[in-house]
Amino acid sequence: MRAAVLHEIGQDKLEVLDDVESTGFGPGRVRIRVRATGLCHSDLSAMAGVLPQPAPFVPGHEGAGEILEVGEGVTHVKPGDRVVVCWLPACGACPACKRGQTQLCLAGFMNAGTPNFKRPGGDVFGFAGTGTFAEEVVVDAGCAVPIPDDVPFDIAALIGCGVTTGLGAALNTADVDAGSSVAVIGCGGVGISAIQGARLKGAAEIVAVDPVASRRESALAFGATKAISPDELPDAKQQVTGGEGFDYVFEVVGRSATARTAYENTRRGGTLVVVGAGALDDHLQLSMFELFFDEKRILPSMYGGGDVLRSYERTIALWRAGRVDLESLITHRVPLADINEALDQMRQGTALRTCIEI
After folding, report:
1. Which end of the chain has less neighbouring CB within 10 Å, N or C?
2. What is the pLDDT of residues 179-204, one digit of tens each?
3. Is the dihedral of CA 178, 179, 181, 187 positive or negative?
4. What is the pTM (predicted TM-score) of this model?
């Protein structure tokens, strides 16, 4: 089968090969024919070594498709079922799951160290234990979440990561107050989803911050009340909040520098939500005095900060009701053969989400 492979960490191009085979099928596992997958910035981060991932590997973790085969003991799906790929499945038995914090379950991360594919030259891993830049993938049954027939594969793919992460950051983690002021730093697919979440919660002012003009224009269409470049943030803080700072600031870039900027633009007693996935060695510096004196809440948001399955269901319900716009998030479409074009679109900031059609 065909799959896009990164041979070594640090390379900026993928090679589309036709000699890749999915592996690991057996009890408790399912084989999925991938139909659509989104390109998330986390894929680029893994390719660059920002996020830890053994190589060679097949990127992609935001996918949807149909079940080809189920292993012994799998009862919740059957061949032909449409599913979204969940890269962080809950085991249901660990302390985090028992506390109801299923987004903190580590079972999915353990899968990242087991090869999902092989080639004549040896084993190939799947990013985050999945690897959806391939025609098919074998994953734990918990990674296959059934979706209704009326949800297109491209929309379902977005729900598998970016939309769930961004919406959840506003709805679950921050629980944005109606009438509040919000700033979102980084307005790709995840940031736009956070904007839509803040709008759903009734935020009065939503300021989108991004260096790319096309993304700022898109943010206004999705519910931002103001869209600015990063160097305009001080003026916006003054105009919107009287210089006090925003009630909520979402950092959706994954860098300490932007997290520091987000902190400085959060009002005293306000909430900074860290959504971006950053590097292990990129440290955010805060003084003990400002932590004490400012009493700002710093809330990391992992995969939307809530039960993933419930978040999927909620997103589908909101989409059906026309309360969130998912179709317009897909600004580009490319076939798997042109995957490197999608990577360039992401790096240049010209795409909110590129759908890779497989």
Report:
1. N
2. 999 999 999 999 999 999 999 999 99
3. positive
4. 0.95
